[in-house]
Structure formats: structure tokens, C-alpha cells
Amino acid sequence: MAIIEVSGLRKAYGGRPVVDGVSFSVEEGEIFGILGPNGAGKTTTVECVEGLRVPDAGTVRVAGLDPVADHEQVTRILGAQLQESELQEKLTVREALELYSAFYPKPADWRILAERLDLTDRLTARFGKLSGGQKQRLFIALALIGNPRVVVLDELTTGLDPRARRDTWKLIEDVRDSGVTVLLVTHFMEEAQHLCDRVAVINTGRVAALDTPAGLIGRSAHSTVISFTPSRPLGDDDLATLPAVATVERKDGRLVINGTNETVNAVLSLLARHGITAQELRVADATLDAAFLDLTAGPTAGLTTGPEATADLTQQES
Ligand SMILES: Nc1ncnc2c1ncn2[C@@H]1O[C@H](COP(=O)(O)OP(=O)(O)OP(=O)(O)O)[C@@H](O)[C@H]1O
Fold it and tell me: Could you state one GO cellular component term attached to this entry (predicted)?
């Protein structure tokens, strides 16, 4: 069942459209990602879902309610993550939890939330003295304090080190597993790939694609990365005849070919025909990075050779 439904959403600032006909629905119990480059219109979209901005056109429903007209009811269903500037530096963790509990008629027990989010040791610490990861954990606790059915997390892990980011991912999964739907705004492909059940890729105010992370990767021209060292040189003409090749790179005697599953078989047949062996052959799925670049780039998308293919492969192999 859809808990959030957005249909034909439009919003312009000063006559400039920044959200231009966005539609998607979020099923109850999923982590739904909104992924896109800077300025794509992600925050404006979720602020319309939260009822913080009034759409110029289109409809938004949260559990069947209008976030603007039924704002008070929606705030009981939807928990939003605060921005850092919205908490005073001198407020302690305990004060923040107590203060936000007081906003709701039936708040969650903040002590349990603090325990769950590993904040019990920091209850007397002032907000300004918390580490980045601790601040994010507090924001998650505050977003959950009203026992929401859906929580909106916007760029939650920006600025965190890799360890703190992974810890925060685990917490977000725990939130989903506890039955809360998560609407997650991110521009980290790895984060979307790791966490999200489905992802809407937003580019220049429009939904460029909506699918599972695996589905997005599968539809990319770069879904598979094949790399090997040929036992003897292989001509460019031969490579050009391979089906579904997106890019070919040569690096230190190795060939790195971005393509699809179809390309793998074709490469192996080509090598066999020429009596060439593929030394240290590696076949890896591309990451969401490549699909994202395909979906958000201009008309030459998928045709250019970038460092991403190699980076993807390195990630897969490490
Ligand atoms: N209140 C506002 N007034 C005018 N322009 C705005 C306002 N808020 C956002 N914008 C502009 O609208 C565009 C979309 O902004 P938005 O914050 O929705 O994008 P985003 O995808 O969340 O970007 P980012 O990843 O950089 O946060 C940007 O060009 C931004 O500068």
C-alpha cells in the first residue's frame, strides 16, 4: 500500500521551475531513495511532501492526507529530520529529546530511543560538542520521537566519515525493520545502492528513472565491467564489433570493457577465435554510479570513457 503519493508535482522559484512534473509513490515499509545531482530538486520535492512548501501544481498525499491542508495530522504520521541549524548549540541531548517529546500527544519513550541510537552516554553533552555521527544519531532519534509511520531523512550522512556513515546506514535499516517507512534523500550512489528498496533518480526537476538499484544498473549501458590482460594484443577493430560495448579502456596492458552480460560472452568468443587467452579475467557488476551517470548526463551519456568504470571495478574487487 502506498503511504506517500506524489503526482505531477511542480514548483518554481522566481518563475524558474525546479520541480517539473515529479510523480512517484512510496510503499509502506520500504526505504525509498531520491537520488540526484546537486540542485536537481530533491529537497524541494521532499519539502512539499512534508508540507513545508506549497506545490504550484500536482498533488501530494501522505496516508491519504494533504500535507498543506492537513498539516497537523501529517506531522503525526511523518517525522522529518531537522537541519543542524535548527538545534541550539547549548541544548543537551536529554533536553532536546525531552523538548521534542513534548511536541507530540503520544511520543515514543525517549530513553528507549536514546538507548537504541547509542546516545545514553551522551545525554548530558551539549549539541555543539557532539561528533558528526552523534548529531546524526540525535536527528534520527528526534525524527522518530513522535512514533511516525514514515520518516524523511535528507542528506543524513553528508560530512560523516566512512565508519560513521556505515553505522548510520545500519540505523536506517533498523528503522525500516521496525516498520517505519523511510524516504531518503541522497546524492551518494553507494548509499542508495546499499540501503534503498527503490530509487527515483531526479534530474533537473524530473524523474529520470524509478526502479530498484539492481534494475537501474541493469538498464544501464554500463551494467557489466570486464577486465583482463590479453596474452597478445587485440585490435580496436575486433573490439568495436562486440555487441553492447559502452566503453573500452586500456590501462597498463589491461583492457577494461564496460558493457552488458551479452558483451561478456562475445569477448570470450572473440578471444577464443584469435587463440588469445584472457589473463586475470575479472567480470564485475557495475555500481549504481555508472547507471546514475547514464541517467543524469546529456545525450552523449553512455558513450564516454570515464574513470568511473575502473573505479567501479576496483570497488567490486576489493
Ligand atoms: N527558497 C528558494 N528560493 C529560490 N531558489 C531556491 C530555493 N530553494 C531552492 N532553490 C533552488 O532550487 C533548485 C533546487 O534546489 P533543491 O534544494 O530542491 O535541490 P537538491 O536536489 O536538494 O540539491 P542539493 O543536492 O544541492 O541539496 C536549486 O537551483 C536551488 O538553488
Answer: plasma membrane
The Cα–Cα gap between 211 and 198 comes to: 5
In the CATH scheme, what architecture does the domain 2-211 have? 3-Layer(aba) Sandwich (3.40)
**Given this model, what pLDDT does residue 221 score?**
66
**Grid coordinates given for 183:** 524516504
Confirm or reject: Cβ of 138 under 6 Å from ligand 1. no
Spell out, as residue ranges, where the chain has pLDDT lower than 50: 299-318
CATH for 218-296 (3.30.70.980, 1.10.357.140, 1.50.10.10, 2.40.50.140) = 3.30.70.980
The x, y and z cell numbers of residue 230, run together, are 590479453
What's the pTM value of the predicted model, to 2 decimals? 0.79
ipTM of the complex: 0.96
| Ligand 1 pocket member 53 (CB < 6 A) | no
Task: Determine the pLDDT at residue 79.
Answer: 93
DSSP 299: T
